[in-house]
Amino acid sequence: MSADAKAQRDGVVTLDHIVILVPYSYLSGLPGLDKPSTATTSAGTDSQGGSGSSGGDGGAPSWFRELFTFSPGGRHADGVTENVLVLFGDGVYLEFIAFTPEAGAAGSRGRQGHKWGAFEEGSVVDWAVTVFHGAGGEGKGGAQRNYDRFVKPITDKILRGHGGKQDEAAAVVYGALTPGGRTRPDGVVLEWATVPAVQVCRSAAPPARTGSSSGAAGGGGDWRQTEQEPVRPGLAPFWCLDETPRERRVPYLQGAAKTSAAAAAAAEVGRGAGENAATEHRNSGAVGVAGVKVTSVPGVSVDGLGRLFGEVFGGAGDNGEEEKKGWPLRAPEGTRYHPDGRLEIAEVKVKEGGSGVDGEKSVVVSLYTDKPELVGKQIGGQVDGKRGIWFELVGV
What are the domain boundaries of the chain? Predict the structure, then answer.
């Protein structure tokens, strides 16, 4: 067994997907989903994306229809959101998600009570990591096993005082498993569990006496996981841990070129994907996520985010710094299609006459392209008069 195959069997922490909020109408009229389509057309770059036409029957505007090759998603189990996917050959995907008409109806608390409900359409609202085990996954109970092996130790280590910052009032760690799922258009039920990032507050307990085993490391008081506050979505990745095989949720192998080993493994799993899965994006040559840049907001410690990122993603920091560094973003297929991506924390820019940053732009995503003529360009378009969806293209 190769080293890569063994690592996959044991589990590898990788980037899973990026979540982008769009109007519900954008999920209609997409090529290959509502009607057969053999190809996408060329999308604009730089400022050429424009606002485009609105499309027939109030569907997606032309620039959005031409942006990528879309694959079917489905409605989530709570009935509040619905999505379509953009699959990359490296196993990562973009999730374009929308609140359903029922969720936004007068008197409904569906959107109002949702963690992404306050974001405007056109925003990158969240992103996720997973534990990748290759074809077939871990089977029933895999979410809990992966939580116990990969996620809980991160929280435990940070709460023991990893990083040496004992004077901070809060630490950024992970909360509890929450079951989730959705049903694909072909009727296949998908199950997973998510784990959110939370801030855990330090109590006002007095420092522990020398030699005492009580209190947090360093004697600055106790950490109480009961005193949790959710971290603003998008500032730190949540975990998406599969109960059903991941290739059913992310059917990228059907659209990607497969090695004989991957093809054989997928065949053993059986019904793993929908017929429209595709990972070729002719307009942009997009092959994966090149970068995620996070800008913190008031109330969330940059140092705390840095320590969490270091535990999740590993990797040496720039100039040996412990915080405010870059971390590698690995894809399920490794570096087969492109180098590892990069996660960065951007410096907070204070607005004139105010404080903090534009929270809707607290997460910025760039994509790898295999088209040299598009390197350094942007693809995307306007969602409304003040917000757009744009991706910078980085050369492989």
Answer: 3-395
